[in-house]
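chain below, 264 aa
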Amino acid sequence: MIRDRIVALIETVVADASDQSEMASAWKKPVVGFADAGNPLFGKLKKAVRTSHSLPGDLLSGARTVIAYFLPFDPSIPRSNHRGEFSSESWAVAYIETNRLIAGINERINSLLEHEGFRGTRLPATHNFDEEQLMSDWSHKHVAYIAGIGSFGRHHMLITKKGCCGRLGSVVTDAVIAPTQRQDRERCLFKYDGSCRKCEKRCPADALGEVPFHRHDCYDRLLENARLHERHGLADVCGKCAAIVPCSFTDPVKLAARKKSVQR
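prediction:
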């Protein structure tokens, strides 16, 4: 099945990249999901994200499926980013290397699709957003949510079964692939039972809180980090809200539920 081949391809490319000596970064096994391009949730992104958010068919005529995947960072990368006011060098380099890795994965997925007579898109991992509103017309994290690989945390990042520390990529294709079964449940401890606000407390820009997300304050900090790490390339990152919090490496709600079950 092409579905299994795509998953295997992504896993192989990531494993190979982690073993390359020229790579400073490493990644854990990816999380991959698939969504029906006709899912009505895509239409709702025009309200949830911005009115100009694209539908899959806007990116590829005859779109039938959206492939989304999460590349979790090796735990050493978030751990390096736990201390200090600015992003660690490892976090910045991982951002740059993962963006390149996503471009390579998308090329390989497209080669596989084309070999089977299908078409796909080559979407960049980032830097495809409106720099005034700081919003994208194709949000990888919202697309990944629809593909069933995670839900949003208080820090506005996607929490998957392997946490939130990593990068997201996606491909739209005209191949018909069975969608991933979505689980509509919380993975954020704060949203689940109000027991966690660690991401909010760790934000150096005070961009998180009871009021709506202060995206411009967040972006200003990203640009400060970009200047700090410019010798490596464009690394407009921060990641302090994600580094070493309950959802860094796992789904903390599922973990908490498991612990409660054992205690009974």
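The chain has a mean pLDDT of 94. The longest strand covers residues 65-72.
thats it, cya
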